[in-house]
Amino acid sequence: MTESEEIIKVIQDLDPDVIMLQEVDIFCKRSGNRDHMQELCRALKLKGGFVCEFQELDSPLRGLRDAGGGVHGNAILSKHDIEFRMLEHRKEAYDWNKHGKWLREPRIGKRYTLVGTVYAPSLPPVLCYCVHLEVFTGIINRVHNFADIFEDASSNAEKYPHQVICGDLNTLAHSIARFSPKYARDRYRLMSVGDTESNWFDRHVMAVYRDQQYEYNLRLAGSGFPFSAMPVRLVRFIWQMIGPKIFEIISGFDVETLKRARNPGFYDPWDPNEVTLRNPNYFGLFSAKLDWTMVRCMDVRQKWIGNRDFSASDHAYLMLKVSPDDSEKVAQVPAIWKLRRQQWQPNGFAPYRRTAIGTTLLTLVLTLLSQWLIHMYKQFML
């Protein structure tokens, strides 16, 4: 059984209503020169939409595993009627058109998010975002791009309160990946020490609600080390006194991203450190939660994780059974969101490890500095 046939078999056994897939190939040599989108829709008898992110150029630079010749993108499949559109991001996390050859993957295109509105009988419409964030960048650019999704979701929340964000966010800039010039390309390879990227993302982005009283994500603004331990109230005070520029410089996030990167009510029912990818290279030392299933105004009744042996794909799959909230709960989004985050946060202390490490290191530096100053003062007095 080929990998694509195994994936179809897994989906048939699960029988989901809606499927969100990333890295779907159409006529690429590496995947048998087949139209996998058409094969999926026919075999599963589902309606589907596909957004092409890249034309994979056929080139001698590519190895057999990455052989191109076709196109590559993301897809949403549904049993029910569905309307599609494409979300374009403000910034390119990596310029593939110019620099793809440096990674031995020459291609034309850029990252997009596929958006689908599902209309199931007897249920409210559900707005679905199928996401694949860039892997060859760093935390800053991934948050830049993800913030665009939160902004779009918020702008559509009144019309479509029931929403889902699913996909591969490539939250992997931790562990030994910190030492990689390919996978950790910004200051957060050091400034997030003590956290996995998924934990850092949960703490600085997912945990900050889009309160109309506060226009910016101040936790993200103060995320630069050693400001990881800085209370939000202190960040707000300094912001009001001298403006946002110092925080843009320290954090690496521009004001527009700090405004957009506020959660309009999504929660992810998985442990922020759940493993959905385990790389067999590097002596099996690297693992990460790359994949996310975020829901808004819906109650998660059951959840599954499968393909733990990574035989059908290099990622585990995540599946949810959800029930849409009634109008009474929709009117109480902030309170319901807070309760559900608490319900599905199995390790409440994990997000604070970095604060503890940052505070400890800062205390150590200040102690050593004070001792050095005392020593120099004594030498001067002699």
From TrEMBL:
InterPro entries named among the record's database cross-references: Endo/exonu/phosph_ase_sf, Endo/exonuclease/phosphatase, GPI-anchor_lipid_remodeler
Q: Please report the stretch or stretches of sequence annotated as the Endonuclease/exonuclease/phosphatase domain.
A: 5-202
Keywords carried by this UniProt record: Membrane, Transmembrane, Transmembrane helix
GO annotation (BP), single: GPI anchor biosynthetic process
Q: Name one GO molecular function term.
A: catalytic activity
| GO (cellular component) term, any one | membrane
By its UniProt entry, which Pfam families does this protein fall under? Exo_endo_phos
For this UniProt entry, which segments traverse the membrane?
A: 355-374
From which residue to which does any coiled coil extend? none
PANTHER family, per the entry = CALCOFLUOR WHITE HYPERSENSITIVE PROTEIN PRECURSOR (PTHR14859), PGAP2-INTERACTING PROTEIN (PTHR14859:SF1)
- In Swiss-Prot or TrEMBL terms, this protein is called Endonuclease/exonuclease/phosphatase domain-containing protein
Q: Record the organism.
A: Rhizopus microsporus var. microsporus
